[in-house]
Structures are given as structure tokens and as C-alpha cells.
């Protein structure tokens, strides 16, 4: 499989994984391992002095490309603040930009996302913005220097699959940066479908972390993504209206 | 001395000189931790030299699982 290049970095796995909601740090670590993912996302929160989050210790920062997100940000200012803090905490200048003021559907605010992206790119961040599947916005984000665009398939954690299919197709057709379908995928087949639409990668969290067996589901997503990538590289045949026999049409018995 | 840390007032015996001493008093490993002092980010290389004063507002943040 051809590697994916993001901001000059070669990424072999087309499956990115979010580290939230796993039943335990051990299960998360095993799921990450089995998934073959190289990019894993994390969130930034106030340290709880009495009960520190154990997830952090289970993520090997040397092994994975850790992608801090700005989840919780309600406007550009908060997102920029979170990105700066994440960089100060880790030295990592990649950021998954998320600005989600709407608490019900967690839909991203396009205006604040674009505003924050512009500021962060100028500050030297590699910005991967979570966005609605809006082809015009995707171009705007690309124009201000984002390293990828990350359109949603459906609301975060909803497991509803590619509800935005037609618009993701247009984004793929027009994009000059990698397209990562993020949010709303529930089944391995949804991930395959995203790749078959032309997306370069998918980001999955809840579908794996909240599955009955997260480790098995991580493997299922890995296989689904790899199989779709191989299929696309192999050059699929065109759809036809009518049948075309796959057995020879000569030499029949009388 | 009193500091407002992560939104809560905390009282410390004696005077903490700088961010490093504060993190030690909070029992926080500075790896993967970021600190904001009165709204400005303090970079790790300045933890030892950045003074904290009574009444300062401090945010101490780090990574957790998230998508």
C-alpha cells in the first residue's frame, strides 16, 4: 500500500484512532497495537490531582504520532489556547482542530474553525481540522494552510455511517490535501466505504472503544481499511447497467 | 500562600518559589504537563525561573484519552 504523506511525514496506516472511552488503559493499548495505527488522538484537560487519568501512561509517545485535539473548545480563542497548551505540554506541533459549540450534535463551527486554523498555521502548527462535509469550507481550510481536511461522516459517536457521502465525494474530488473521514463511523464497512469514496484515511474512536470487544473491533477496522485501500489501488471495474458474462460464451453442449 | 489552581483555591504551607516547586507540591510529574499562569502559557524551560505569588491563577493541564 502506498504511504500517506501528511505535512511531509510518511504514514503507513490509513486508520487513525481516538483514545477516548476505552474500558481500561490496558485494553486501549492492546487495541492500538492490533489496529496498526500510527496516529492516535488525545485530549487536553485539567489535571485531576487526586485521580490522574491513567490513559496517558498507556500511550507510547515514542511509538505513535500523538495528535492532541482541541475538544471542548467552543470558539477559536479557546481552540488556539488549547493547541498552545498541548504544544507546551508535549512539544508536538500537530493539532486536530475541533471547535464544537453545539452540545447536542457536537457539530463543528465552520467560522470559528477557519479562524483558529488561520492563527494556528501562522504559529507553525500542522493543523488537521474536524469539519462538516462542506466542500467550500474544505477549500477555505486548505487555502489557509491546513495539512488535511477531516470531514464528518455523521455526528461524533453516532455510529450512523456515511450520511454525508455525496459531499465527501466532492471534497475528495477537489482536495489537494489528504482527506480523513472523521466521526460517525460505526462499522468496519463504513470505513471501507469512506476509503472507496476516495478518502485517504479514517479516524475512529467510539466504534472501537465502546464495542463489546474493542481489541477485536480494532482488528476489524484495520482489515476493512486495508482491504479498501488495496481494492482502490487495484483499480476497480466500472459499474454497468447490464450483465457481462464472466464465463466464455462459446463451446456450449448441444 | 493561596493559589487558585484549576479553578479551586488551594492553600500551601510556606512560600512556593516557582512553578517547579508548585508542581512538586502538587505531586505532578512535569512530563506532558502544561501550565498557564494568570492566562499566559509558561514553557517548561521556564518552570524553575517563573515565580508564583499569592493569589495567582494557575492552570495545570495534561493529556487524557480523547478522539
Sum this structure up briefly.
The complex is a heterodimer of chains A (254) and B (67). Chain A is of the alpha/beta class and 254 residues long. Chain A has helices at residues 25-35, 55-58, 76-90, 110-122, 135-143, 165-174, 188-196, 206-209, 214-233, and strands at residues 4-6, 9-11, 15-18, 39-46, 65-68, 94-97, 126-131, 150-151, 180-182, 201-204.
Q: In the CATH classification, which architecture of chain B applies?
A: Roll
Strand content of chain B: 35-45%
- Summed up, the helix count of chain B is 1
The main sheet of chain B comes to:
5 strands, mixed
Tell me the number of helical segments of chain A per DSSP (H or I, 4 or more residues long).
Answer: 9
Overall number of structural domains of chain A? 1
* Unreliable stretches covering 5 or more consecutive residues of chain A: none
N→C terminal distance of chain A: 48 Å
Number of spatially distinct domains of chain B: 1
| N-to-C order of helices and strands of chain B | EEHEEE
For this entry, give a set of tags.
heterodimer, A: 254 residues, alpha/beta, TIM Barrel, 5-stranded parallel β-sheet, 3-stranded parallel β-sheet, 10 strands, B: 67 residues, mainly beta, Ubiquitin-like (UB roll), 5-stranded mixed β-sheet, 1 helix, 5 strands, 10% helix, globular
Task: Please explain how this structure is put together.
The complex is a heterodimer of chains A (about 250) and B (about 70). In chain A, about 45% of the residues are buried. Chain A is an alpha/beta fold and about 250 residues long. Helix content of chain A is about 35%, strand content about 15%. A 5-stranded parallel β-sheet of chain A has the order 5-4-3-10-9. The model of chain A has no long low-confidence stretch (mean pLDDT about 95). In chain A, helix 2 links the parallel strand 4 (about 40-45) and strand 5. Chain A starts with a strand and ends in a 21-residue tail after the last helix. The longest helix of chain A has 20 residues, at about 215-235. Chain A is globular. Chain B is mostly beta strands and about 70 residues long. Chain B has a single domain (about 1-60), classed as Beta-grasp domain (Ubiquitin-like (UB roll), Roll). Chain B is about 10% helix and about 35% strand. In chain B, strands 2-1-5-3-4 form a 5-stranded mixed β-sheet, with no helix packed on it. The chains are: A alpha/beta (about 250), B mainly beta (about 70). At the A-B interface, strand 4 and helix 3 of A face strand 3 and strand 5 of B.
